[in-house]
Amino acid sequence: MATSNLTEEMREQVLSIVEIVQQNVVGALESIAEQAQRLLPQYATEFAEKLPTATQVVDRGFDRLEQMLKTQRDFATKVAGGFTPSGTANPA
Fold first, then answer.
1. Domain ranges within the chain, ordered by starting residue
2. Which of 12, 88, 24 is nearest to 80 (CA)?
3. What is the per-residue pLDDT across 4-33, written as a single tens digit (0 to 9) for each?
4. Is this prediction's pTM over 0.90?
């Protein structure tokens, strides 16, 4: 088996394991959330309703990370361009 095929197969197995673990975590969190809704006093849930939803927090976090990653990519591209002799750069 070629190294690239072995590497690809391992990558796919790792991703499959990650997806399974993520599904289990989501299931556990949903169960915890259901139990919390039943057990928490009313004032706690009223306070929680004033907060952003978990989905909103995740979306905002990833939006910021996407912006940061774009900035880092632009910076790395400019730095890499500094190592390319003038007039020989290949546009991406």
1. 1-50, 52-82
2. 88
3. 888 999 999 999 999 999 999 999 999 988
4. no
